Automatic annotation (TrEMBL):
The keyword Signal applies. It comes from Hypothenemus hampei. This is Uncharacterized protein. Keywords: Signal. InterPro entries: Mite_allergen_7_sf (IPR038602), Mite_allergen_group-7 (IPR020234). Residues 1-16 form the signal peptide. Gene3D superfamilies: 3.15.10.50. Pfam families: Grp7_allergen.
Amino acid sequence: MKTAFLILISATLAYTSQVQLKEGITPQRLPPVDISNNIVPSSNYDIEDIRFSGITANVTEYAYKILENIRTLIIRGGLDPLQLSPQYVSLFPVGYMNLTDGWVQDLSTITFSDSVIATYSVDTNILALTLPIEFETLLINYDYHTVITLLSFTGTCDAEISKVKLNLHLGFNFTDFHAFVDKADVKDSGNIIIKFTGLGLLDWIIDAMSDAALLLFHGVILSIVDLFIDKPVDDFVNQLNALIDEILNSTKTTVF
Ligand SMILES: *[C@@H]1O[C@H](CO)[C@@H](O)[C@H](O)[C@H]1NC(C)=O
Ligand SMILES: *[C@@H]1O[C@H](CO)[C@@H](O)[C@H](O)[C@H]1NC(C)=O
Ligand SMILES: *[C@@H]1O[C@H](CO)[C@@H](O)[C@H](O)[C@H]1NC(C)=O
Ligand SMILES: *[C@@H]1O[C@H](CO)[C@@H](O)[C@H](O)[C@H]1NC(C)=O
């Protein structure tokens, strides 16, 4: 699947978003993003692989109930806001940009972009569930310090990324009663609007900074997906086990 990563860039003195810290919650920090090998999001999982003949159930309503808990976990777990590591990025054709005091906000806007369908295969005894996850809007803020030859610029970089979509593939093996997270793939890394504030920025410098920021933020989104799978997902899988139990019971009564 190809990603759509549309951008709109503007240099403005207008606004910078405030990071809303939550009382009593220490934000987590995302490790630095390696953008050197990180240009196109990986999408090496083919959902068709698990759509074998079997029993399907529309579990959208159940999934929304779980989603409520996930939103709470995201906030309590210090993932909204989530702190970003300082980053050093080279600019093309010359110079560099240092980004500090970075934040990403609104991971708790997580929702589903489509129905949630569970598929149970009698052959393999595996129940597969793909969650079509969407983040409605993610806000990324950084302070930047750009150095190009003898010139130095400082200001803020604010990005608004909308409609980031990913599929989270979960499974449950009824042979050993083990739920697992199979894989997440980024379906659509969304539309991004990047704004730079700062004095004296020339067009070509904004272009160079935008290109670098775009690559970095793309990497940030992929890292967030990984983090997201690592952290709230354990609890998620536990809740899923209860859900699957329920589905299986109702499937048994209606199908067998
Ligand atoms: C940018 O970051 C690099 C690496 O951390 C550091 O060596 C350099 O001094 C920084 N430059 C500015 C202008 O902050
Ligand atoms: C699944 O269920 C939801 C709500 O119960 C409904 O809105 C949606 O249309 C259903 N999807 C399919 C593919 O049947
Ligand atoms: C399900 O669990 C059983 C028992 O541990 C294992 O033999 C089987 O390979 C598992 N199936 C899949 C598809 O992982
Ligand atoms: C599903 O069935 C199992 C075994 O019959 C039972 O132990 C379990 O409580 C049932 N779960 C639900 C949610 O009804």
